[in-house]
Design a protein that fits this description.
The chain is mainly beta. Among the domains are: about 100 residues, Immunoglobulin-like (Sandwich), CATH 2.60.40.1220; about 130 residues, Neuraminidase (6 Propeller). Helices cover about 5% and strands about 55% of the residues. The chain contains 3 helices and 46 strands. A 5-stranded mixed sheet has the order 2-11-8-4-5, with no helix packed on it. Strands 13, 14, 15, 16 and 17 form a 5-stranded antiparallel sheet that branches. The radius of gyration is 30 Å and the shape is globular.
Amino acid sequence: MGHFMSPAILLVGIGCSSGSIEADLDSGPERDAGGRDAAADELRVLSTQPVSDAVRVETNASIVVAFSRPVRPATVTPETFAVSGPSGPVAGALAVEGETVTFVPDAPLHLLGSYDVTLTTGIASDDGTLVDPYRLSFRVADGVWSSRLDLALDVGAFLSVEYNRRGDMVLAFTTASAPATIKAVRFDAARRAFFPPELLEEDDQPFGAAHAAINDGGDVVVAWSGSTDPESRGWVRYHDGIWGTPAVEPGTAGLLGLTSNGTAIMASQSAPGADALIEVLGPTAAAWTTPEIAVPMAAPLEILQSGDRLEILALVDAPRQLVARGYTQGVGFSDTQALSAAGETASAVHFECLPGDDLNVSWVRSEEEIWYARFDGAAHTWAPAMLAEGGPGSAICANSAGARLAAFISDGSIYAVHADPGQGFSAPRKLGSPLGMEYARCAIDELGNGVLFWARASGQSFRSRFADGVFSAPEELGNGPTMKEAVTDPLTGAVRVVFYTGASLTARTFE
């Protein structure tokens, strides 16, 4: 058998005339002055969870990075371990345990949101800094629908469902059985939890109304009136996690609004065709101011919050017209702005608070056209525009970037359209023609994704998910209850839908 000579040895014999063979064959790992393997001491990223380019990460996921060496905790900061998402930097807690760094977000991640994690060379071990900057990206999964959640039983005829821009909600309602009570259910978006009904007031006589308002800080004010004495009312505040002592006094309970600094206003109308009046309650005041005219000869429809300003939406009696008027504590009223043309019928009016201080109102004009008006919270102006031909029960929603989503009823069918910021609406997509269709609702998040809902008069409801520019096929959402409100959490894209059966409150969540 012949002998085989390796190419390496052959090259040494031919091309090397000096030095040791061992040094020329393989100099070995680079070593420092102490004889240690320098490469082994380098700080590198070994693995991450989630892995880069993952596309179905859970909304409650933490970000875990494993390094090659123990990391010095003082070098791990929001600047050296930066997490960003659809709304910019992501707040959270950083923890270092040996070679592992964990980031736990303060809030759930945004449905279908894209996230980036950037690690800089400022991260260090005892032996040196991270060799190279490191970046990973991932995308969050879409949501799933919960089963039906029971919120309250024995719910009477009066119910007010209000929400803020964080997605917090308050549901104030009367009970049907004796003794008569006023109760409230709160939803905390940060905790993703509905709280059990809280008793606000009890009486031996039924109550005649229930109204509520919630500001962006989660403070609440609730007002009610008695059916036997409509000139008597009660009210109570919720502030810093505590319900105050209810106050009972002469007066008429009306629609409520609550600014970010805690100023409340109440709008009421003594009789059809009368003036819309408002009263003001300062942040620490114990009594409401004397009523003053907000809009002459108008019925108040809703009060929406835009920072420290409240917009009173009202329907003028003659000539018929949908208008808005702002009120700011210490400044007073702004000029009245017309949303619809004078003399036109405005029905199926729907209101929503947009992220930032913007607002949105939609309505059906003369039973045949769907209109909307967007309020610019910086300029304090309303801008009306027509959406499409359609009938009562149609709905439109928008986000702060100007993306819009709408569902409208036309000739017995439900249609859906969407618009990217600064663009016109897409061609309508027909989603179905369920017999007896009564109304539609919609919700949209900051990414432009959302959910459409529509329902029959019997209460049977349907849904379609809009995501990545596509409407999903319709699915049944529930059967029996009336849909009262669909609220989007702008920070996570989660949606909460509240139903009222006439005797109970229920909800379903998409998160």
